[in-house]
Amino acid sequence: MRIRPYIANKDYECLSKWIDNERTHAFWCANLLPYPMTPKSFHDFLEKNAMDWTDGAYIATENSGQAAGFFCYSVNTENNMGFLKFVIVDSTKRKKGYGKEMLNLALQYAFQITGAETVQLNVFNENILAKQCYKKAGFIERNIDKDVFSYQDELWSRCNMVVSKQSL
């Protein structure tokens, strides 16, 4: 597996297919984007996050070049803390180790290239498979904010997870 910058005209079509229902969409972006997502809404969102948070968007590919996952990453240079966002793996590749492998590459990039000392992410506590994947990649729960997101008739809790350079 490899990671490379997201290329809008090449990668959007694949990525959009991985988000094939409202629940997956809400787990992925906390409804910060409309569902269904459009290329314009997504690319405008990426541009805004790049300007506001210096987020970079990345694609994980199989060695063949086929897109297998996506994430955004930024680093706060004042405290050397990286932040992973909008992590998703191709729906046909879930539960096969792709997520852990992609996260390992993202963490290598964060620690070795951007100089981060720690990397954090947020995940809904109800997104059990994602939480398991993050734990396998070395993330530990730091805190949980109860009932902060409303999805249909449910209230979801947000879990902040962190991994440090020294722990890997």
TrEMBL record:
It holds the Pfam family Acetyltransf_1. CDD domains: NAT_SF. Residues 1-162 form the N-acetyltransferase domain. GO terms for molecular function: acyltransferase activity, transferring groups other than amino-acyl groups. InterPro entries: Acyl_CoA_acyltransferase, GNAT_dom. It comes from the Bacteria. This is GNAT family N-acetyltransferase. It comes from Candidatus Eisenbergiella merdigallinarum. The lineage of its organism: Bacteria, Bacillati, Bacillota, Clostridia, Lachnospirales.
